[in-house]
């Protein structure tokens, strides 16, 4: 029975990947700083609690793995990367891991489409030169390059789009734009944009992303050695998305729809926040057969319902 280890198994994406992989008859090792909740399914689930910045703890966590899914993220996300406090998690753990893994282990890494920097064209298809604009993206790119130049392992990097959705039981919460705006709408606050609303993002539900990781593990031989873009390919205008959130939240709560409005951008806003992103994931789809299944409206309905339940006293 194959042993698949998920690093970051209690995170927003990691917990969704864990739940998806639990449907397979494998030995599934869930590793995080806090105990992961065991999802239903035929998988034999082993829960490991560890601080993976400790090299010995990392070695124990991945010992005997046939495949590893790497979904670690330093506390504080991109802001922590700017301050330098997340580099050990975002880069250092990858360097340690590559030294510790045995030959021919599959390692699937959760990268970011934003590693490319300011998009020079639409759609992105993975052939663009990387010119990351933020410390976070520079760290993600460094970790990816460490992975892809290590020939002993079968490394696959999945560059993720804007992922959204409801959290799984025991998992981390989405800290992205969709959930932030849903929470504002549930509080009756206006939904604010730093632009005129025509800026686009490629939005994919977290459950579809989890299926992509399972597909990458299944097709690792064909995917190994390069990065692959994931996306829906729609390029949803954020003004339309925010109005959809406002309307769906109103349907759910019975309150009037909140206002969607433009405001002055703060001085710290990165230039990438004002550029549209649409992703062509046809290369990954051709190899794996994966494609997003959850429509945007359904995904937002599910997100609103989940966050409304959480907000109830």
Automatic annotation (TrEMBL):
This is UDP-glucose 4-epimerase. It comes from the Bacteria. Residues 4-231 form the NAD-dependent epimerase/dehydratase domain. Pfam families: Epimerase. InterPro entries: Epimerase_deHydtase (IPR001509), NAD(P)-bd_dom_sf (IPR036291), NAD(P)-dependent_oxidoreduct (IPR051783). Gene3D superfamilies: NAD(P)-binding Rossmann-like Domain.
